[in-house]
Structure prediction request, 1733 residues.
Amino acid sequence: MTSAEPLIQTTRAHRVRRTRRSRMRMALKNAPLSAWFGMGVILCYVVIALFAPLIAPYRETQVFSEAFAPWSHEFTFGTDQLGRDMLTRLIYGARNTIGIAFITTTFSFAAGMTLGLLAAMYRGWLDQLLSRAVDVLMSIPSLIFALMLLSIFGSSIPSLILIIALLDSTRVFRLARAVGLNVVVMEYVEVAQLRGEGPVWMLRKEILPNVLPPLIAEFGLRFCFVFLTIAALSFLGVGIQPPSADWGSMVRENATLITYGDVTPLLPAGAIALLTVAVNFVVDWFLHSTSGLRDEK
Amino acid sequence: MRLNSVAKTVLQRLGLGLITLFIVSIIIFSAVAMLPGDFAKATLGQSATPETVAALQHEIGLDRPPVERYFSWVGKMLKGDFGSSFASRTGYRRTVAEIIAPRLYNTIFLAVMTALIAVPLALGLGIVAALYRNSWFDRVVNTVTLTTISFPEFFIAYMLAFLIISRDTFAGTEFAQSLPAWLAISINWTLNVVPKFPTLANINDETPFWDHVWRAALPSITLTLVIVAHMMRMTRAAILNMLSSPYIDMARLKGMGPMVVVVRHALPNAWAPIVTVVAFNLAYLIVGVVIVEVVFVYPGVGQLMVDAVRSRDVPVVQACALVFAAAYILLNLIADIISIATNPRLLHPR
Amino acid sequence: MSESGYKLRIAQSLIGRGKVSRRDFIHLGLAAGLTVAASDQIFVTVARAQPQQGGFAKLGMAHGATTDSIDPAGYPDTFTQTAFSGAMSNGLTEVNAKGEIQPDLAESFESSNAAKTWVFKLRKGVTFHNGKTVTAEDVVTSMRYHMGGDTKSAAKSLLESVSDIKADGPETVVFTLNSGNADFPYIMSDYHFVIMPSVDGKADWASGSRTGAFVLENFQPGVSAKLKRNPNFFKNGRPYLDEVEFIAITDLAARMAALSTGEVDYIGRADLKTLGMLKRNPKIEIIEVTGYGHYTLPMNVTMAPFDNPDVRMAMKWAINRQEIADKIFLGHATVANDNPIAPAIKFYKNPVPQHRFDPEKARHYLKKAGMEKLKVDLSVADAAFAGAVDAAALIRETAAQCGIEVNVIREAEDAYWDNIWLKKPWCASYWSGRATADWMFTQAFAAESSWNESFWKNPRFNELLVQARAETDEAKRAAMYGEMQQLTHDDGGSIVLVFNNFVSAKSKKLGHGDIAPNWENDGLKMAERWWIAQA
Amino acid sequence: MKSSNVIARERGTDLLTVRDLHVEGFSDERWHPIVRGVNVSLKRGEVLGLIGESGAGKSTIGLAAMGYAKPGCRITQGSVVFDGADLLSMSEARRRRLRGSRIAYVAQSAAAWFNPAHRLLDQTVETAVAHGIASRGEANRDAVELYKRLQLPEPETIGFRYPHQVSGGQLQRAMTAMAMVCRPDLIVFDEPTTALDVTTQVEVLASIRRIVEDFNTAAIYVTHDLAVVAQMADRIMVLRHGQTVEEAVTRQMLAAPTQEYTRTLWAVRKLVKPEIEARDHLLTIDNVTAAYAGRVKVLVDVSIKVPRGRTVALVGESGSGKSTLARVVTGLLPAISGSISFDGQPLPLSLKQRPKDLLRRIQMIYQSPDSALNPRQTVEDIIARPLEFYLGLKGEQRDRRIGELMHMIEMDESFLDRLPGELSGGQKQRICIARAVAANPDLIICDEVTSALDQIVQEEILKLLMRLQRELGVSYIFITHDISTVRAIADKVVVMHQGKVVEQGSKTEVLTTPHAAYTELLLSSVPEMDPDWLTQLLARRKNRGILDAAG
Prediction:
């Protein structure tokens, strides 16, 4: 008792109100250079996506007389095959691509995470059923399956989003279940169980916050891979409705130019690559700082 | 006793695998049935007339109800008969087995060839990156591999093709002429160091072995670039994870050098996650290479399946899907068995 | 002309037959007062221009699928057409480089009874690859293969007007038609109508034994087909090549790269986007031929708003054809004028006025139809033709300036012809073209045709169509076809955007004569007609 | 080499001299000092005991003596001179040659420090073979010899087993053999017996002491347990916050510590609670048998009565079934047979069948507060939840009650917005107690609640629990393996062994006049502060032949 008292006094003297915000600020202060770079890039992308109409020099579908115009003062990155300003398309592409990728990833995580955590929590037949269903889905070649589903339901943006989300959610399920299994054996979950908490509380308050770090990291990666899936699908002939610009399709449309050393297709491809690298930098740092993975010491 | 429990697991997994295959076949069959059009309409295309479509449908049995067709297919499957392609005609039978067999060989050939390059490369890079983590080597390898996976595969393939074309054409480009002479010459020299790999990998069953290897070089390099990043990052993470284990400190305290620590002490315990990710990537090499096959005109199963889906050639689609699913299941099973075999806790229970 | 000059000319003519070596020729040139370089130059130029015997060519085709077969009921695309119809087989007639019809397996043909009866005389002593002699019986069974209720042939409709075929002796075949058709020999040149041996009264296609310049050696569906020279080919001196391999390269970039790196000697359907860059390669040559093929946007005239001719006219003025030709086809197309008959075809007459992008006229016709604004759906997919989606995007922009809002719907490529074409009110379509005006009109514009894609039923047009078919007076026929072309232009439901050019590319080491415009790949006959220049 | 050592020892020079050692550790993106200017000197054949609470830097000093800093740590200053050469300034390759061959290490938890992928023998001889000291065959024979000396069972074949196939005590001895295989001059023992049960600990201590004496090896013995260090060390150094508090010869240190801090460490052992008789029983466990799904029974026919407002101590070694009994009482593992009654009413065996109010009345506190507190919830969230969930408290009422609870566990309200990761071990355990108390329970099951804590903190927690019992009249089932804890808090003692109750009765009864042989073994194995305790115990046991029976 006596020895506890001075301890309290010292902590009171140093007391700082530790809110979520102040914790975040602390973490940010200590972020390494790569993470800052990553966050800067992501921020730029988000700003560009949100304010595309204000930033872009022309309208998204505006056609000029000269197709494949060279880089010039008027058209910073030249024009595309129809004479649309490349820079404008890239800027609007950010909006469409990031929007679609974000919605898709959100859907796949909402579904995969909920089911994965439920499976981890309840085990038994529910786990068996879901795990086997995921096995089945994963054993079907996903690209070809997506192609078939898109042919059945038509390649509109909503069905594109839902189908990619469905196929992606299988991996999320596996990850969520695996991480969830590590968390459900923790004693604080047992405490909640002993207290008599219901499933919603268990999932939302006890398990979810503790499985988030690796899942958020995965979110970053999956988010980037959606672009690649869209590019691959447009390679096979199904993709986003024109005249909307999206990077995946833009890479595909101009890809043949690269065999002659024309840099045009590098622009959208580079935009994707830069974002992927940026997201990964942030993810690495995030994982490191929440030590969900003991990647670096 | 121990072997029995491992064998039991394997048998159980095989059983589950068969059920999975069965469900996959139902899903694929239904999906093809739901696709607009059928084989007859797809082959006749723009020139289809109702009568010719009906005649073709009748010949290949498409006029029967789908459920009946599915069960007759299952019945034949159980007898080991994959059936014939819809492209067969009277007097000209093309069995699914004879269509798939050479392509499956090609697919496996490419997968094995790529794996032989990619797996040692990924493990080596992963180990070295883990050993010298946060060094410039680690950072460069990480960023480069990340960049390669963030480009679409076909894009990487085209860039490789560009390199090959540039061997001959670089000197003549305006770009080359705008460079200082020494630079242009050295770039040209560098380009010519690259072997002139064929950009067409159109092998057939008469292609000799080494020619096959030669022709499959570019597809293999493309796929290597695509999968190395994933495997390398996983190897690095798994080893780093192990490096924080007490027994690694122990090995160091026993005076072991860094290479011995990683190879003898960390790696044997990291096999399970590494093997899992390798199996995942091998499965990808068999199942997911459609695009590379198309770009390099490599006759593999992926392209066959896409073709078959386009022409609604149900027996071929079914067989391809089953081959893929079986490959996926088997590879995962093998990965699990290796995980058990490399883990004394599972192999030698108390 | 000096004696040495005369010898030189003789020698030049011998180069082509491979009878004069380069060295000998240079000696002759020196004797005639030429320098070594100059005579070598002549040798090379001449050698290229003259057919040479021997050699092996690899031909990259833009198509090819694993479902391909040598069955002539199919032949869905250029791979099967060029390899199995063009190289391996012959029909009764063929179209030459000038677009004229000429006998092929037939020696001659003539019509009687107002073009209702056609008599084809076969060449004598032609054998199939298996050694069997070609008889009239083989021709009859080969044709019947595409006829009747249970045929699966895609060419069935072409023979719908044939009421009877019979053999008249071993070398004569008589076709009887329901109605007169002066262009019937053109129909016989269709790539489906290859002559196969008759076995037990049935056409035997599966053996692959045909009459063509090449014999099938190895065929891997969707990959490649290898053929070797038919030593018993009936055309003297042909083919020039010893061996050809057709390689399916469906990916554009892969095709271009394969030609650039010398993996193949020829590619069909070159990538227009990178054509300029390909041209820079000194070893490569571009081949461009204006064909009969054309891209259309059929409007269903039985549905609103296209049932109003003024709306149709407004649409025709609201499209910038030149821009489409320039941007979608990068100039490798000829602007059309809502007339499906290509300039190269006999009886072609350009209707007036030329439809071009004119917002004033479009608004005028729209107003005439009683509308201020118009909103229409346009269903497209690149399955209709490569670039259809992009073309629709351009149309959307130009039509907007005329008060017409075009809502572009990208449809699934799979089953496009089944679900969209002939189903949606306005969509995109492609015709590979027909060799005669009658053929084209009969299939795509005749009231009763099941492929009348705009459901256009103009009484005057249909009346003229029947009359012109049986009319043997050239001048009268020309007048009738002229009027019909004007009718489709003014009243028809099909917007014909452009005629496509066949753009292919080849290595300079391949030699060839004039290129036929009727189909791609030199009228599908490139294997038979082309050679490897020695130089 | 051996002969030169002998000469050196006769001259009485120092084998190891550590001067002004500073070590820093990296955490929260910053370097923090762990060791601040410590000096150590060690003669050949001498054993130095390092003692202190967790965070005192004793393990770090042990490793630094080998010239080693764990990943994430760095030695910033000082010198470590071993046999005349400074380990810190020599090349990595030279340092590596010394490690394993002349300086060896024995770790706390052998299960984690042995590589699970290799057989024991391979790991034992690895150093000898790698450093070229012996051939593989010689090393193998020597290892078997060492196994024998360390009294491992089946010494010929035990080397072919994998670490997971061997018990903790055996592993700890195998690790000693591994350290000995090169006959090093110095071994660093880092809490080698802390993770073991008391009965096993005695045997391992005896083995270690014997072999160190036999080979005349110098040793640094790191531990937090005074009684243990008293048996092993010639000299003791007390550490706190990375600095030396005092250093003296063992007997002198035990008899007359000069520093206040040392005295508080010594005093901990003296807390004893007077025993109070029970009036009536809150919980009655009758003939309960339990098993985990499909496996062998872990509890057989257990009957225990828990008096109201009193503390029952459940004593036994790991695997004795005491934690399983806790799970049975909470309903997490429903008993297969038998019955439990609570406050006169039959208690449903399964958790799912118990109403909320019944759940409220039985609470549990775990051994490791790290895993018992959700790392993503603030202290306020954690304590408030039972208030909201069971009692439906809201707003001001809830806040007031939280304040009371915080006061009760002697913590300031400023801790309310902290996350568990920002608290010390003792503070976390207090939060766990507050969470349990918040439900106003009648019974709290305490599962080894103090064993993860330092001794001073342990005492505070025990005092807190006793005060709460006085104030709230709550009953405790106190699961522990530590006899001194039993002395400190129990009214009644239940001794368990292999799933059965061996003996139960009042504390005095069980502790002073044990009836069962097992209880006696257990009690006699608890180390005492007397430096001669181990020697005397071994002599006594040898006479009675107990050691052989238990080994």
About this structure: Residues 88 and 212 of chain C are 4 Å apart (CA to CA). Chains C and D do not touch (no CB pair under 8 Å).
